[in-house]
Amino acid sequence: MKAAIIDDLSECREDIQTCLKQYLSKHCADDDITITGFSSGEQFLSGFVKDTYDLIFIDQYMKQLSGIDTAKQIRQEDPLVILIFITTSRDHAIDSYQVRASGYLLKPFTFTDFEYTLTTAGITKLKNARFIEIENEKILLREILWCNIVGHYMQIHTEQRGIMRIRIPFTKVSELLLNYPQFLICYKGCIINLDHVEQMSELDFILTNKEKIPVSKRDRKKIESDYHTYLFQKAREEELL
């Protein structure tokens, strides 16, 4: 997860960073966290590029460019990033709706306040933060390329951690993964993450890392249909957002 904190007070940036690390440690599996602080909206916007951040905290009252004006420019570039306003007053709460802010954190705040604001904003539902837990091991969904059963072990092929071998029934893993639309059974005992598929050929799914995962001949038509349905739904969601 990548987060930015825009606030002209260094102590406030530090407080938010501490709370965010505590929150993610408690609620999410993502241990790859990058938090960057900025002292003004101008400093942030000078290097801002779409899709850089999952979450941005913005102080509403800053000396030069206001939080609302900063957020408006962010929204012109990135319609998806989650925005949380930090403020000493609720006087401009209505303005935050114009930029589709997901939360409003009133200073001074406690960790309980912080936790409530982020949970309400749906931080734990961020696609990049979702995970499954198997044998006390948290595995980010975005890390999983595909998985297959070998004997009594499930092999979970991941981007960062290689192949994880866990003694667990295929049915249990299926129950966990198939709740998410990006996961699909492509042949008996094998589940693939469609977010890592580059293309589908006559016989295989070709992943972004160039691995080829076979597709069941018997179920190929249904699998192909499910794959295209997922791509269509994903494109629709991105358009709406």
Q: What features would you describe in this structure?
A:
With about 240 residues, the chain is an alpha/beta fold. The protein folds into two domains: about 1-125, 3-Layer(aba) Sandwich (Rossmann fold), CATH 3.40.50.2300; about 130-240, LytTr DNA-binding domain (OB fold (Dihydrolipoamide Acetyltransferase, E2P)). It has helices at about 10-25, 40-45, 65-75, 95-100, 110-120, 170-175, 220-240, and strands at about 1-5, 35-40, 55-60, 80-85, 105, 130-135, 135-140, 145-150, 155-160, 165, 185, 190-195, 195-200, 205, 210-215. The strands form four sheets. The protein has a five-stranded parallel beta sheet, with helices on both faces. A five-stranded antiparallel beta sheet has the order 10-9-8-12-11. Helix 1 links the parallel strand 1 and strand 2 (about 35-40). Helix 1 (about 10-25) packs across helix 5. The radius of gyration is 21 Å and the shape is elongated. The model has no long low-confidence stretch (mean pLDDT about 90).
